């Protein structure tokens, strides 16, 4: 799927991995457009003065910024054949390489919004960003990664909050229906909130090693960026107001979630909806029989394609069937058909499903409909398996000692009372390496006692060790 590149901390996404990202991108893009959003593109470079305009945002990202200071190179007079930065080509103002786009986008929105008639402004962009990470891991945390970022402007706070919640629901729907990944929808604590936001909503998922992964975020920005960049509009009464903003995004981190939530020791286990190849057909033949067999297989292939199923016939004559089986299993192809002339003569086809590794013989006459249904069953089964794991690894505790024992034992989500203060949150993080993942939207208020300080607590929070 990916490998480390010649650039420290950056990855090369290989064709098979990028094909998965493309399916994610197409699906999400359709979902965004159904909710009224349009795509645009903004520069990767942000003047430092613009980046500084929203102070909390600038402070939150300052340590992760890559900065352009010069605009050209020159031949090095002391080292023939080498280059150096031209000392006379210093920029008048440094440019920050985009770690997130609020600054450049909101400085543009100032020109786009004059009246309430221009609102809401519903914009998304697909882009790359750079965050100068020191400890990197493929897909989960790299210096450069791909993502989408939505940025919207509204006439009222209520509209902006509704947008924030709507996009959280879009992310949750995508995660559960396409990634086959159950998620907890919640709101972040002030300690974990996006820099420059009033509220950060999130979806949190649980990986097979018991660690949590933040799979997507949606931020209610209030009027913070509108005021920083003086984005105002004339309301219906003729008065002048600052707009209300949101931003929201998911990234190639979802590729990491896909691997860690579903895969096994034999390789990837891909949900059919995101698999680049949903069905692979491996011909079983003797020397000289391949061309004739491929002609007999073609109607099956065409029938699957007509159903909208991505199918590949592995007709390579350089590898044995056993090698092909292992390779496609490693790549997580959901369904494998092994077809020989005798199978076709007998009217049966050997079918193997990747998620359970079960093999079965199915009637040739119904094979297209059977495979179509099987893909639906696999999608549902992968989700149910992940959901069962999450339920088994979600534990309610009453004491700090029990909290630590669960984290060190089975791991997963731990629901516990704490007093809601930043100080207690930091102490828990320092002593246990666990963080508040979210205050779940579906979790009811429940009076209790903080497991650390003994102070009153209005509700439980989701804690976990996380990526």
From TrEMBL:
Class of enzymatic activity (EC top level): ligase
Location relative to the cell: Cytoplasm
Top-level taxon in the UniProt lineage: Bacteria
Enzyme Commission number(s): 6.1.1.15
Cross-referenced SUPFAM superfamilies: C-terminal domain of ProRS (SSF64586), Class II aaRS ABD-related (SSF52954), Class II aaRS and biotin synthetases (SSF55681)
Name of a matching Pfam family: HGTP_anticodon
InterPro entries membership: aa-tRNA-synt_IIb (IPR002314), aa-tRNA-synth_II (IPR006195), aa-tRNA-synth_II/BPL/LPL (IPR045864), Anticodon-bd (IPR004154), Anticodon-bd_dom_sf (IPR036621), Pro-tRNA-ligase_IIa_arc-type (IPR004499), Pro-tRNA_ligase_II_C (IPR016061), Pro-tRNA_synth_II (IPR017449)
Molecular function terms from GO: ligase activity
Keyword entries, A-Z: Aminoacyl-tRNA synthetase, ATP-binding, Cytoplasm, Ligase, Nucleotide-binding, Protein biosynthesis
Coiled coil: none
Alphabetized Gene3D superfamilies for the sequence: Anticodon-binding domain (3.40.50.800), Bira Bifunctional Protein, Domain 2 (3.30.930.10), C-terminal domain of ProRS (3.30.110.30)
UniProt note: domains: Consists of three domains: the N-terminal catalytic domain, the anticodon-binding domain and the C-terminal extension.
Function: Catalyzes the attachment of proline to tRNA(Pro) in a two-step reaction: proline is first activated by ATP to form Pro-AMP and then transferred to the acceptor end of tRNA(Pro).
Name this polypeptide is given: Proline--tRNA ligase
Protein source organism: Hymenobacter saemangeumensis
């Amino acid at each position: 799927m990916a490998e480390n590149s010649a650039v420290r901390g950056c990855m090369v996404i290989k064709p098979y991995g990028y094909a998965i990202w493309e399916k994610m991108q197409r699906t999400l893009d359709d979902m965004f457009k159904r909710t009224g959003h349009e795509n645009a593109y903004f520069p990767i470079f942000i003047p430092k003065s613009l980046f500084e305009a929203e102070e909390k945002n600038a402070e939150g990202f300052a340590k992760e910024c890559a900065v352009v200071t010069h605009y050209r190179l020159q031949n090095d007079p002391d080292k023939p054949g080498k280059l150096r930065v031209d000392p006379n080509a210093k920029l008048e103002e440094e440019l920050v390489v985009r770690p997130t786009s609020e600054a450049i986008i909101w400085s543009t929105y100032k020109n786009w919004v004059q009246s309430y008639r221009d609102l809401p402004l519903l914009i998304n962009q697909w882009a790359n960003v750079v965050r100068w990470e020191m400890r990197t891991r493929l897909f989960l945390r790299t210096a450069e990664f791909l993502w989408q970022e939505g940025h919207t402007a509204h006439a009222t706070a209520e509209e902006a909050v509704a947008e924030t919640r709507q996009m959280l629901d879009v992310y949750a729907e995508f995660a559960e229906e396409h990634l086959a990944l159950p998620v907890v929808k919640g709101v972040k604590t002030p300690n974990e909130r996006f820099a420059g936001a009033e509220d950060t909503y999130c979806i949190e998922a649980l990986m097979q090693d018991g660690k949590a992964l933040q799979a997507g975020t949606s931020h209610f920005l209030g009027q913070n960026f509108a005021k920083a960049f003086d984005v105002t509009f004339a309301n219906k009464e003729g008065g002048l107001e600052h707009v209300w903003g949101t931003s929201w995004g998911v990234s190639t981190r979802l590729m990491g979630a896909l691997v860690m939530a579903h895969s096994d020791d034999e390789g990837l286990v891909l949900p059919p909806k995101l698999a680049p190849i949903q069905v692979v057909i491996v011909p079983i033949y003797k020397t000289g029989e391949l061309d004739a067999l491929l002609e007999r297989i073609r109607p099956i292939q065409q029938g699957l394609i007509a159903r909208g199923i991505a199918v590949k016939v592995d007709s390579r004559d350089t590898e044995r069937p056993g090698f092909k089986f292992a390779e496609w299993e490693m790549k997580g192809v959901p369904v494998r058909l092994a077809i020989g002339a005798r199978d076709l003569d007998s009217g049966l086809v050997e079918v193997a499903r990747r998620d359970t590794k079960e093999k079965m013989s199915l009637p040739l006459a119904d094979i297209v409909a059977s495979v179509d249904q099987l893909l639906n069953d696999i999608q549902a089964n992968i989700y149910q398996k992940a959901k069962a794991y999450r339920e088994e690894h979600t534990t309610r505790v009453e004491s700090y000692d029990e909290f630590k024992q669960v984290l060190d034992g089975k791991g997963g989500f731990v629901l516990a009372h704490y007093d809601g203060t930043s100080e207690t949150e930091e102490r828990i993080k320092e002593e246990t390496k666990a963080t508040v993942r979210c205050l779940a939207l579906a979790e009811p208020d429940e009076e209790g006692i903080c497991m650390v300080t003994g102070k009153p607590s209005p509700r439980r929070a989701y804690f976990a060790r996380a990526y």
